[in-house]
Amino acid sequence: MKLDPFGTIDSTYSNNPAATWKKLLGFGGSQVFHDPELGLWLIAGYDNVRSALTDSRRFSNAATLAPIRPLSDATAEALAGFDAPDVLVSADAPQHTLIRATLRALFPNTSARAEHAWAALIAARVDQLVDDLAGQDNTDLMRTVAARLPLLVILDILGIAADDLHTIPGWADGFLDLVWGDLGPDAQLAAAHGFVDFWHLCRSTVTTRASQPDPGPGLIGDLLRHQRGNDARLSMDKIAALVLNLTVAGWESTTGALGHALEHGLTDPHRWAQLADDEHYLATHVEESLRHSPAVDGWPRITTTEVTLDGTVIPAGSRCLLLIGSANHDPRVYGTPDRFDPGRAWLSQHLSFGAGPHYCIGAALARLEITTTLRTLARRFPHLRLADDYQRRFRPNVAARTHQSLPATTGTATRCPYGHDTSSGTRP
């Protein structure tokens, strides 16, 4: 069985992942396959994916950020300058357990805590971006909203000025393409140099803040105050690595998820109208978008021992791709899984934020960003629609599922005529 994540035609996994998930799920027998071209074991189906996600002892995260494609010698040499310690994405217990416990104490990870801490900040950033759309007949919502908001928000939360807003996206995008994409030698090298530069920026930011009498605002300041000069508690490099992890994960995954939620809303005028006024529908729309179109629809792991899963033996040391999208489209859990249905049962059981010890710590933040953006845009631009010539295109990648663009027309009205109260945190 082949995944074909880097193809260019509509029938490939790159642009039509649901067709591949359906094939994997309906193949008969085991839903665990080996892809010889990628050198990956593909794990499909809800039960199989959840089992692997929650078992980080046998399915380790150690190789999660190891490139899928072979690196050129020059790229490998450039990446030698990236010496960040494993802290979250590619860490296992006990390191991951200790780091996550520290972060959980400082980073609001429930809906109530996230709303209390960040609702006003997010509302202000959304208003800023939506104001910029006023007077524009046409826009690319990925470029103007979906890719900008999560980066602005995570930098605000970390306590970093947005001075590097134009360079960070290129660095982060390049790294994801280097790790989970299919770059040629020159693009590989450029991406490697960019990400090493990004790592050096994170490290210099943390060390500079640590040298000040007051480490300043945001999560960086909180982490440094928690550390209190004790490297045994939390080293400078670990704090810098957390900054890097949170920036890339908090920006890239939410960008993808926001793009999907916008597309699902804008393909149906009735849905778009509901997003402005119906808080229950808004919440279920976001949840169904996460289920139907996960921003991270594949997650790499590596087996630490021989594992038998769904009757198939996976050798020790095998790289695996946990197909989260297939889990969310498993008809044994979700009837008519290809249909977008915010009223369906078991909606909250999707695996788009993972499961087990590595469940996404920023899930509540992502939901808050997406709901705030949809509500505000639907109220301010009730006639917003996808452009007539819009065609769905995703960035080729084995793990991250992100729209390349979302061209849209704003319509003639810039504000909803019903006079909603759009002040921070106010609901109808």
From TrEMBL:
<dbReference type="Pfam" id="PF00067">
    <property type="entry name" value="p450"/>
</dbReference>
<protein>
    <submittedName>
        <fullName>Cytochrome P450</fullName>
    </submittedName>
</protein>
<feature type="region of interest" description="Disordered">
    <location>
        <begin position="402"/>
        <end position="428"/>
    </location>
</feature>
<keyword id="KW-0479">Metal-binding</keyword>
<dbReference type="InterPro" id="IPR001128">
    <property type="entry name" value="Cyt_P450"/>
</dbReference>
<keyword id="KW-0560">Oxidoreductase</keyword>
<comment type="similarity">
    <text>Belongs to the cytochrome P450 family.</text>
</comment>
<dbReference type="InterPro" id="IPR002397">
    <property type="entry name" value="Cyt_P450_B"/>
</dbReference>
<keyword id="KW-0349">Heme</keyword>
<feature type="compositionally biased region" description="Polar residues">
    <location>
        <begin position="402"/>
        <end position="413"/>
    </location>
</feature>
<dbReference type="InterPro" id="IPR017972">
    <property type="entry name" value="Cyt_P450_CS"/>
</dbReference>
<keyword id="KW-0503">Monooxygenase</keyword>
<dbReference type="InterPro" id="IPR036396">
    <property type="entry name" value="Cyt_P450_sf"/>
</dbReference>
<keyword id="KW-0408">Iron</keyword>
